[in-house]
């Protein structure tokens, strides 16, 4: 995907924010604890969207600052988590003081960013030895009905190699990876909503999008269990690494952010 297409697809999430909030899968608790292992960490979330990972981070008692370029997505996040700091900003320009964060995390989002610019910004805002954590949920296509779904909407694939990207940046070391398995309960409506929330579907014309969603509904009717629904299996891929550029002096506190950067979601 070229930069123009990537930008178009990334911007598409605002218009499907409701479907995204209602239908996207959560992240397993074990994965969240691996991504941010120290209780009470100062966590900056890039591309937080409607707050799928944010909710789990808050539940683990972390101090979260959520960012996303799409106002429509952040508005839904802020309605759910009214005390969470939310900033409308791009990952390539993070309005946070240098050294203010223990962990920067991105869930299902890092492939949308300009990697060189974002990694430099992440290195700037992390405290010495701070952690960058990345996570993606991928459907488990070893399951027959999931393979059939992928033939309709496109196969899952890792669009970036995080390990290679982090190594090439020379800003991070101690790279670690792991995976976790989990399942999402879906019914006909939520499966269609899940597909509708994908950027590749959101950027289609109305006729093509309707045709795809009709096929997804027919797939559910073939395999579904009525009101009991069915389980959609995922493999959660996790990555973390430590910033290597130590900074002189004490980090500036995140509470020193300009309140003008905060979004009024009332």
Q: Can you tell me about this structure?
A:
By secondary structure, this protein is α/β, with parallel strands linked by helices. It is 38% helix and 24% strand. It has 11 helices and 7 strands. It has a 7-stranded mixed sheet with strand order 3-2-1-4-5-7-6, with helices on both faces. The model is unreliable at 5-12, 248-256 and 258-266 (pLDDT under 50).
Distance between the termini: 37 Å
Which runs of at least 5 residues are low in confidence (pLDDT < 50)?
Answer: 5-12, 248-256, 258-266
Tally of helical segments? 11
Mean pLDDT: 85
**CATH hierarchy class name of the domain at 3-141 and 154-184 and 234-246:** Alpha Beta
Give the topology.
Elements: H1 3-11, H2 17-23, H3 29-35, E1 42-46, H4 52-59, E2 63-68, H5 71-80, E3 85-88, E4 101-107, H6 115-125, E5 126-139, H7 144-153, H8 162-169, E6 172-186, H9 188-196, H10 199-202, H11 206-223, E7 230-243
Parallel strand pairs: 1-2, 1-4, 2-3, 4-5
Antiparallel strand pairs: 5-7, 6-7
Concise overview:
By secondary structure, this protein is α/β, with parallel strands linked by helices.
Question: What distinguishing features does this structure have?
Answer:
single chain; about 270 residues; alpha/beta; Rossmann fold; 7-stranded mixed beta sheet; globular
């Amino acid at each position: 995907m070229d930069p123009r297409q990537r930008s178009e697809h990334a911007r598409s999430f605002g218009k499907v924010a409701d479907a995204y909030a209602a239908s996207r899968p959560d992240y397993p608790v074990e994965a969240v604890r691996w991504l941010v292992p120290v209780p009470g960490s100062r966590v900056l979330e890039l591309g937080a969207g409607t707050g799928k990972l944010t909710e789990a981070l808050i539940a683990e008692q972390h101090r979260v600052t959520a960012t996303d370029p799409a106002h429509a997505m952040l508005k839904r996040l802020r309605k759910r988590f009214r005390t969470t700091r939310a900033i409308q900003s791009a990952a390539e320009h993070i309005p946070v003081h240098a050294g203010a964060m223990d962990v920067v995390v991105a869930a299902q989002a890092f492939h949308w960013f300009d990697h060189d610019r974002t990694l430099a910004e992440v290195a700037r805002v992390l405290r010495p030895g701070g952690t960058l954590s990345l996570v993606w949920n991928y459907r488990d296509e070893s399951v027959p009905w999931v393979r059939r779904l992928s033939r309709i909407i496109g196969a899952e694939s890792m669009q970036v190699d995080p390990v290679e990207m982090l190594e090439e940046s020379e800003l991070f070391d101690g790279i670690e990876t792991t995976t976790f398995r989990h399942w999402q309960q879906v019914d006909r409506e939520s499966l269609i909503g899940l597909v509708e929330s994908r950027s590749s579907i959101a950027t289609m014309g109305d006729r093509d999008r309707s045709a795809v969603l009709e096929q997804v509904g027919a797939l559910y009717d073939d395999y579904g269990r009525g009101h009991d629904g069915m389980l959609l299996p995922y493999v959660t891929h996790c990555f973390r690494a430590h910033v290597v550029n130590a900074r002189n002096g004490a980090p500036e506190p995140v509470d020193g952010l300009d309140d003008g950067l905060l979004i009024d979601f009332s």
